[in-house]
Structures are given as structure tokens and as C-alpha cells.
Amino acid sequence: MGRRPTIHDVAAAAGVSVSTVSKAVNGRYGIAVDTVERVLEAVEKLGYESSLVASSMRSRRTGVIGVLVADFEPFSAEILKGVGTALHDSRYDLLAYSGSRQASSEGWERRSLSRLSGTLIDGAIMVTPTVVNVTADVPIVAIDPHTGHADLPTVESDSFTGARHATSYLVELGHKRIGFVAGRPDLRSSILRDAGYRRALAEAGLPFDASLVGVGRYQQDTGREAATRLLSRADRPTAIFAANDLSAIAVIKAATELGLDVPGDVSVVGFDDIPEASTHNRPLTTVAQPMQQLGAAAADLLVALMKGESPSPTHIRLPTRLIVRATTAPPR
């Protein structure tokens, strides 16, 4: 044929539709036995068995681990680095997968798993999944799930303690009006960072003021809008803790646009320690969560599950640490 055979070639050779070939090679119901046999004969004859699909049909193993993300952004990119490092000396390949327009759609992981599990991947790592009560033909580990660990093995950072330390540090500097640019209200880690912020205020004897809280949803545009509103007040906060670094960088941009100096007029603390935090023209004080370690821990946990082992624990929480840089100072 002079080229690698495709599913269309298999369909033509077997005298069936492409959808029938797909159902046959994926072992789905509703296909007659003789039709399945005819498709598999065409697969073998054409050499289509060299593909991952055909290989998995024969051995039920592909040697591939899938990392499913709603979107490729700094957090998921660092997670992928960690997974890749953990798998570097293993026999597993890594497949990073993000379906189109999934980031805003609840249940995206179910669609992704239905397309990949049992055919292209032997196990899956889901990054910030919207739901954790999913079923698949392969082992699954979740990183930073929306609703908590549930019954699924999970890996996450200690968001509550990290936020508490960040806010307490600002209090120690002398700040009494501390704003908060919150993350996504549907995400467990965001809720915990909000709780950590409030706990630190309470411990310092400072009242919680809902008007000093804006929702940035972990995005720069919405974070910038929230920061502009907070910093345009006559009684603006002297410090702002942002639930992630992208929002914190947006706070700095908003402050600059309003003619405010960071940290002279307003101190800013972020959360994550993405690469841009240290390379920003004003390096960001932030709470570092071990993003690459999250990916590596998830990969190790998944590989153990794929081997049929019973690893303990199956719910892993990694510590965070505060990194002080150039965006914080005592209030004027």
C-alpha cells in the first residue's frame, strides 16, 4: 500500500463502515461475531496491528499512561513535567490529552476516559477533574479534584495551610486590611485557600470583610477585574493574597495601571510558584506547592495500581511553603 493503513482502509477491506470498525476493535456490544472476525482479519492482513488500537486488542496493554487535563496552562504544564520525570526510566509512554472546549464543561473527564481507556491507555491521571465518581476499564488517579478525594486515589497540596501561612505573613508585616482574590468556587483547593485566609484573619483578631474579597477564578482577566475593583476603593487594602500566581500577577498589573507601587502601596502574595513567579519583572512572593511532585506522586501511585498492588496511602497531601520575594513589605 506504500503508507500506513488507516481505519478507512480496514473498513473498505472488511466491507463495513468506519463506525463498525471502531466498535469492533474497541470490543463494544451490538456487532455480530462474524463481522468482528472479518474486521480483525482485515486488521491483520493490512498490517493495522502496528497501531496502538490493534496492539491493545491483542495484548490488552498499550504501555501508555494518559494525563487528562481540561486545559494546558501553567499548573497542568508543571504536573506533566512531574509525570514525565517519574516515568522517564519506566516502560510507559506518556499521552497528554485535552479535548476541545472541555474546560468549561462539567464531566469532561467522562468523555475523555470513554475515548481513551481500554484502547489507547493503560491508566489515567486526571488533573483537577470536575467529578471523581467515574468508572473506566483502567486504574485512575486524580490530582487536585474539585470535590475532594471521594473513593478515587488522589494527590493534592495542603492548600489550607499554605493560604493560612501567606495571610499570617502579611499580618506579621503589619497589614490589617488584607484583600483576597479567590479562585474557582467549584474547586476544593480554592475553597480551602479561602478557609485558610479566613482562619489567619481570625487568629490575628482581624474581622473578615466580604467586600475585600473578589473572585478571580484562577484566570488573569477576571483576576485583574477583581483587583481593579479592590484597589480603586478609597479604603483600599494594603495587601492582597491571590489564590494563584496568575491572579497575583494580574493584581500587580492592575496596581501598576492605577499608579500604585508594589510593594510600597500594596503587597501581593500568590499561590503555586509557577515559573513566571520568579522571572516576573518584580519577582512574586508566593506559596509554593510542589506541582511537579504532585505529578510524580500521582504517576507512582498509578503505576502501583496498574501492577495490581495496593499502595498506602491512596490519598496523598503534600506540604507547601512560603517563598518571600520582592512583592511584599510592611505597609506605609
Any overview of this molecule?
With 332 residues, the protein is an alpha/beta fold. Helix content is 42%, strand content 16%. It contains twelve helices and twelve strands. It has helices at residues 7-14, 18-25, 33-46, 52-59, 74-87, 108-116, 159-173, 188-203, 220-231, 245-257, 275-279, 291-306, and strands spanning 64-68, 93-97, 123-127, 140-143, 154-157, 178-182, 213-215, 239-242, 267-272, 285-288, 315-318, 321-323. The strands form two sheets. A six-stranded parallel sheet has the order 2-1-3-4-5-11, with helices on both faces. Strand 9, helix 11 and strand 10 (285-288) form a beta-alpha-beta unit. Helix 7 runs parallel beside helix 8. The radius of gyration is 24 Å and the shape is elongated. The N and C termini lie far apart (76 Å). The mean pLDDT is 88.
